[in-house]
Amino acid sequence: xxxxxxxxxxxxxxxxxxxxxxxxxxxxxxxxxxxxxxxxxxxxxxxxxxxxxxxxxxxxxxxxxxxxxxxxxxxxxxxxxxxxxxxxxxxxxxxxxxxxxxxxxxxxxxxxxxxxxxxxxxxxxxxxxxxxxxxxxxxxxxxxxxxxxxxxxxxxxxxxxxxxxxxxxxxxxxxxxxxxxxxxxxxxxxxxxxxxxxxxxxxxxxxxxxxxxxxxxxxxxxxxxxxxxxxxxxxxxxxxxxxxxxxxxxxxxxxxxxxxxxxxxxxxxxxxxxxxxxxxxxxxxxxxxxxxxxxxxxxxxxxxxxxxxxxxxxxxxxxxxxxxxxxxxxxxxxxxxxxxxxxxxxxxxxxxxxxxxxxxxxxxxxxxxxxxxxxxxxxxxxxxxxxxxxxxxxxxxxxxxx
Length: 402
Ligand SMILES: [Zn+2]
Fold this sequence. Notes:
The chain is an alpha+beta fold and 402 residues long. The chain has helices at 7-13, 31-50, 64-70, 72-75, 98-108, 157-173, 195-211, 252-256, 282-293, 316-328, 342-352, 362-367, 384-392; strands at 17-18, 28-29, 54-55, 61-63, 82-83, 91-93, 117-126, 142-152, 180-185, 217-219, 229-235, 241-250, 261-262, 268-269, 272-277, 306-310, 333-336, 356-360, 370-374, 380-382. The strands form five sheets. It has an eight-stranded mixed beta sheet with strand order 3-7-8-15-12-11-9-10, with helices on both faces. Strands 17-16-18-19-20 form a five-stranded mixed beta sheet, sandwiched between helices. The longest helix is centred in the first third of the chain and has 20 residues, at 31-50. The two termini are 40 Å apart.
């Protein structure tokens, strides 16, 4: 029923997550799965910091009036979960974070000196996807967007698009995704805003893409209802395409919300709004990573970086000490000193997706080292410090590899 790389099989097998019938389309992250989620979140956060974003957190549901103003009530309503409570009027769980970040922009009242004004959020959003379309982590009703909005002047658009694209391509490479196709999606049939605004938005985004050295393929009609977008499509090792990152240029929401900043001459100006995400959905990207790697995640991301196992229970105390030292160094280590054969414990670790196994027998106890092996690698004896260093190295951490 499942392919060997199906993330719906790997998730429970690797003890990462599962689903329950009472909460269709919503993930139960188990402790190792949450470790993985956090490692990915930390990698995204580092990129956000590099790009000078300020991180915020905003509420989960809002009164109808906000969605009417944003246009979501008319264009997105069938995907929105309505909330009934003590509120005097209708409300809905957020399907997007944009209006919340607009409120943040309004409160901050930045002047031209503070532009580009960049906000980011790991925003948990809900969408009423039909039950037949739900599919593991790929199609959920609740998911986490690595969402960001840039409020800037028209002449800052090019630099922002270039900076985002550069960062995104580098970010994808750190996961091993080198082949990335860029798609330019233009005005859809159903849209908000005047043709004049769309002409302007499309020409600015096209110019920005070309200034950033991108050669996008045109996808007419594929834009968001408020603006055109660039989509970044990566190819996995199974040869499948995944649209993950996106940057959208929006002149409609700034108009609907009458957004203003104080220009250099003291006059009020309308900002341009860029919606951007590196991954789109953290959950979906984890699904892509699992299928791409068939569960053998890169060491820096693996929830179980090292399994520490003693050959027999005679070395249990040493194994416990090594495990404690690895944990103290910040390594995601797991200890297995159960009275099972070593072979059985190592096989279980491989099925869980452990990156490295560190075995401690009498010889290792004598020389104060551990015998470490990665998948398909011959075991070699190293110090606990060298093992820690290898685990802590990675695209988003300082450190050296062996
Ligand atoms: Zn947005």
